[in-house]
Amino acid sequence: MKFTAFIKNNKILCILFPIVASIVYAPLVFMNTYYPDVEHVANPTNPLYNWKDIGRYGLVLLKRITPLYHYNYLAEAITFFIAFAVLSLLFAYFLCNLNSKTRPIFGFLGSCLFLIYPTYTDQFVFQFQCFEVVVSIILIILSGILLTDFFRNNHYLSLIIATLITIFSFGIYQSTMNLCIAMYCGMLLLLLFEEKGKVLIKGAISCNAVLYISLIAYKLISGALSTGNSYITDKIAWKSQPIMTCIGNVKHYVKVVLFGQKYMYTVSLLLVLILSFVSLLIFCIKAKKRIPLFIFAYLLLSISPFIMAIIQGSEAIPRTQLSLPLAIAFLFAFSYLALNAVINKEKDETKSNKALTYVILSFALILIALNLYKTGRLIYSYRLIAKEDKVNAIKIADDLSTYNCKANDENSKPVIIIGTLRGKTDKFSYKYNYNNREYMLTSLFILDEGIAPQYYYSTGRILGYMRMLGYEYKTPEENDRENTMLKAYSQADGMPMYPDKGYIKETDDFVIVRLTDYDPYAE
To answer: Model's pTM, two decimal places?
Structure first.
């Protein structure tokens, strides 16, 4: 079925599900407030930040060919909203296109399982690149659709285009590499139900060829264009940590993900693994068809969310975990198709199909609700913390107005901020945990506070945010920054803490703002 025919035949679903999926993140991406790194891209002299240095040539190109070259939060949010709606439709179509037995409603439910997951919140909080990241995911899904066309119809142009857009996608965001691996495993698992052996062999060979060609091409292009270090290989712990430590890291990460032990993960993977394993068992007993291949493809798909952790020997950063929700969606689709294949062999097929539909539908809604609960709480928590940050920043700016450090005045003294502030929380919101390092829960008054020289980066972050609010203060001279910060730190000893009277102190060289002694490591 062509994409246009799919849209035409499912008009109501095509309107409803993209809106539902997109609205989930609207409270996040339409926020005109501070978020990590925006102070860099909002600067007209540095709109491309460090993306070229870390190998994101595709992201740089997208910025240059779209109106998003210069940062505009509203334009970024609107384009994200549109792209995300397109992505939800495209993935629903992809699932239905892989297997003719996949009903559209299950395709859309699979799309929601894929796209409503807490890890995306930590990714989309970087609002200046959220549209581009969604485009990179769209390209990977589109490459899967084109590869399927090549498997079935020998359209070599589809194979070429699939390879080219995969290379481009890797250049937008490197974490689409593990997304690609999970997609290939899921594709081959679903194709096993109704495709011939030749198609499957061609599919396996083509997927591997596209992946390796794209990886090599990405490495060559990024190596030629980048001036910094590798964004992926530099994170491999096997190089510097003992083997048993790395193995322990991976085991711990698997446990965290399966049991949803951190805010960014839910038990959805564990539940869908149980359902899909039972479905596989029943299918193998009843169908007796390509059992070794089904088991092999199923195992590959099941471990695909942990590929990056295994490669790195450490826990994957939540915002890079794109393959996890994709694997959940494919395992869900597999469960339906496996049970449906068994039911089609039964005598009372109609009643059994209805019962299966209701059971799988209910299961999908439970998984979506579990994901939505944590996703919603994270977005709510972020908005609460961001609001409190803005109140504190404006309060500090008002208090600084009486000192010789006027905003937007080059002749004023530099401002140095020492200490941290805890982000505001309530009973429904999540609390910040330094060990988890979720950007969603990180107050800007904590961000990077532990990086040497003492407190400079915290100062830089806060002053960068205040510049976004229209208060541009001088910073310590770069050539003597460390000595200046250490001097300020010693002079801040014994000062009252924010918001008590006297938390601001002016010296001959600078103005000190003394925050609190809140220790984010302690929780």
So the answer is: 0.93
